[in-house]
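hey so u asked for the seq, here:
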Amino acid sequence: MSGSLMYFRGDERPAWVETVTINGTADDMTTGYTFSLQVKLGTGSAVLTKTTNITGAAAGVVTVAWAEGELDIAPGVYRAVLTATRTSDSLEWTIERNLTVQAI
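ran it, structure tokens below
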């Protein structure tokens, strides 16, 4: 896991923008993929599951836009687990980042 995300509790911006390459190649994520995100505290169950406002673009770019109240979670260090599923064959890849939520 490389990189990390940092927000204050209740933030809605900026969106999380991730660029993904697989074996040095960036897929066009504009169509043909579905996305989901789980925010977990350690190995426990998800405190947030998200399947909306996640969009793909050319060159392997995926953007997670936060909706009002989604990051209104207790301050701490979480695991943000983003999964893209290719609709043609249901193959998945997963990106994980540390997500730190700070108190206001």
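The domain at 4-102 is CATH 2.60.40 (Immunoglobulin-like). Strands lie at 4-8, 16-19, 33-40, 46-50, 54-56, 61-64, 76-86, 92-102.
lmk if thats what u needed
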